[in-house]
Amino acid sequence: MTNSDLTLVLGGTGKTGRRVAARLRALGRPVRIGSRAADPPFDWDDPATWAAPLAGVGAAYVTYQPDLAFPGAAETVGAFARLAASAGVRRLVLLSGRGEDGALAAERAVAAAGIEWAVVRSAFFMQNFTEDFLADAVAEGMVALPAGTVAEPFVDAEDVADVAVAALTGRVPLGRVYEVTGPRALTFAEAADVVTAAGRAVEYVPVTVDGFVAGAVGAGVPAEVAAPLGQLFATVLDGRNAEPAGGVAEALGRPPRDFAAFAATAWGTR
Ligand SMILES: NC(=O)c1ccc[n+]([C@@H]2O[C@H](COP(=O)([O-])OP(=O)(O)OC[C@H]3O[C@@H](n4cnc5c(N)ncnc54)[C@H](OP(=O)(O)O)[C@@H]3O)[C@@H](O)[C@H]2O)c1
């Protein structure tokens, strides 16, 4: 085992990162978690923390916080990618989001770093309903989002991680984007029906962007985070991302997991 087998997994305790780290470890590959709580710590907001976690790293999985749609994200990701290249990292795999200009700019910045790259450009994670900002709402039986009747091809973070690991380990062609979604688009009302049928009664309530931001602030989200988050949802949930894409099958040779299967596992009684 040489240092160059070492993979840095940024956000390695998060929704896709911890799944990526687990898969790499199962393959016998050494992993270093990059996060504020890791040792050494990695903080996107403090570039002085970036060099130490990059030492001896061969490949890095790059998940940006809080979101590539936030102002300055592409510049920050580009600076990180250039530092990684100069530190001897040979391959970067960026987690990106569909239909968002800031994410596209970050993808271009990674591709321009002069080393091997791949982009996993993802739909809305199914795990947002179980592990993130919608989990409490689901538990309380009401999900309020500024998504109207727009459909979204929710993707399982397990599939995102499978594609990311295939790219990190060079098992799929690099230098390209894998656009990963689930197999079908569901409106949030339809998704709520699937969750309800699986065993957790939940209702979807469409709200305006302003209503969403006010609700988030009321729930304790800082206004400077809630406002761009509202704008992000207004952008990516306007119908532009409704069409499923083939990245999971292209990378893995199998179809992506369906939301109903995810819901049965998450909320089913057996
Ligand atoms: N959620 C989706 O549906 C979705 C879809 C497409 C693309 N994306 C992209 O996924 C990326 C990650 O979003 P996510 O929602 O999935 O988050 P997540 O992975 O659940 O984020 C949590 C992880 O990030 C780390 N982290 C938080 N703040 C950090 C900071 N300032 N510096 C370094 N690490 C930090 C956390 O560890 P510590 O607390 O220890 O720092 C933890 O490991 C975003 O760039 C977004 O564009 C998300």
Shape: globular
Computed over alpha carbons, the radius of gyration is 18 Å
> Helical element count?
11
Low-confidence stretches: none
Beta-strand content bin: 15-25%
Arrangement of strands in the largest sheet: 2-1-3-4-5-8
Question: What structural category characterises the helix and strand content?
Answer: alpha/beta
- Average pLDDT, all residues: 95
Q: What ligands are attached or bound here?
A: NADP nicotinamide-adenine-dinucleotide phosphate
Helix content: 25-40%
Structure at a glance:
This protein has 270 residues and is α/β, with parallel strands linked by helices.
Notable features of this structure?
about 270 residues, 6-stranded parallel sheet, two-stranded parallel ribbon, 10 strands, about 15% strand, binds NADP nicotinamide-adenine-dinucleotide phosphate
Descriptive notes:
The protein has helices at 17-26, 51-54, 73-86, 101-111, 135-140, 157-168, 188-198, 209-218, 223-236, 247-252, 259-267; strands at 7-10, 31-34, 59-62, 91-97, 116-122, 142-145, 151-152, 177-180, 186-187, 203-206. With 270 residues, it is of the alpha/beta class. The strands form three sheets. It has a six-stranded parallel sheet with strand order 2-1-3-4-5-8, with helices on both faces. A two-stranded parallel ribbon has the order 6-10. The longest helix has 14 residues, at 73-86. The model has no long low-confidence stretch (mean pLDDT 95). Residues 11-17, 35-37, 42-45, 63-65, 67-68, 95, 97, 122, 124-125, 128, 132 line the site of NADP nicotinamide-adenine-dinucleotide phosphate.
